[in-house]
Here is the input.
Amino acid sequence: MSSEEAVRLKNEGSAAYSRGDFAAASALFTGAIEKLSPETDKEALKLLYSNRSASYHSLKEYEKALEDGNKCVSLDCNWPKGYGRKGDALLALKRFGEAYNAYNAGLRISPADQALADKAERAMRGIRSESQASPSSSATPSWIVYMRYLVLGCILLYCVPFGGFAVLFGRVGAAAFAVDHIASVIQRHGRPRFENDYAVRVLPDPSTPSLLLGIFVAVSPRLYFMALVPIFLLTVMTFLAAILAYGRQHSRDIEEKTFPLIRRFVPSAAPVLQSLNVAALLSDRQIPQVSLLLQKLAAQAQVSQGIFLVIELLLPSRNFIQLYLWWQFLKMQYMQEQAFSGSSRPKLIQEAFVDIDKQINGLLSNRLVPQLLRTGYNTLKTYLAKQVELPTNSPAAESRGGGLLSKCTIM
Here is the structure.
């Protein structure tokens, strides 16, 4: 440092911070900063701003801590600690996307910095929890409910032989599904912006894959029934509470009309029916299990559609562009589940691939199946596994850890 007075104030500030007197520490660091010149003392100033940022953070003056973190970065954009100070303040302000970006900027400079990696994971957990939390301040708008009725109605009409109109109904249903999830994303994250922070917050959102699914099915060259199945199941999931409530209201009618038929055709079920309480079976406690089941079935349908598109390569109706885009969509979901493997989010696409792999292996294990077919399948499986590998040496990889400012060293 060029000023002995600045050195003295800095040392006194460090001592005050060590004994927990953060207000005095911030004042002493401010005094030291005022003694120095931004043109000639950048190295000393970045340390002082870093220390004062830590002091403000301890005083819960997070906006001031953020200002000093930004000053650290502006003085030396190649100093990881400056990005750490900035990220700590943003994390405390619950600006998780910006905090994640700040920590990863530091990791790009110092990939081995485990403290920054831990903090990046804490920021990512904040992004996930923020994305998955449904807004509680307002009920679902009525137009969204009507949009969901439109989705279900159009997909059911698609199943009716209306000629060319059936395809139109299917595409309208898929488009309405996309609009529903676009509204969900906007409600949680605000209007779309071409910013990295916005993308970081939106990508982990559970509505994002559904949004992309709806758009893809609506504009795809050829419409497939299997592609509409996940859209139908995921929309039914939004009505689960209403469906179960309706079932509880009419539980006696269900028992009176269905139980005699079951006893007639399945006499062995009579003892079970005597102890069965339909109202209890349709309680709201069943919603999480039924929702998870519907999501798993939707994932199975998406993977099955991908398998069908591969098989269709043998037919004149094959479409290479649709095949490529659908598998890119599956790859995106698979890699997203890998990247967020530390969360409680179910690995639906991964589990669907595992289940279908078991079924295919069961068929290929038949002794009548040629060895060439088994070898070809294993080669394809190895190739696909490499396609979804996450980079292990990328400082920006989302599998990195992250935590709050666990300790602060005054330099």
The chain is about 70% helix and 0% strand. The chain has a mean pLDDT of 83. Residues 173 and 225 are 12 Å apart (CA to CA).
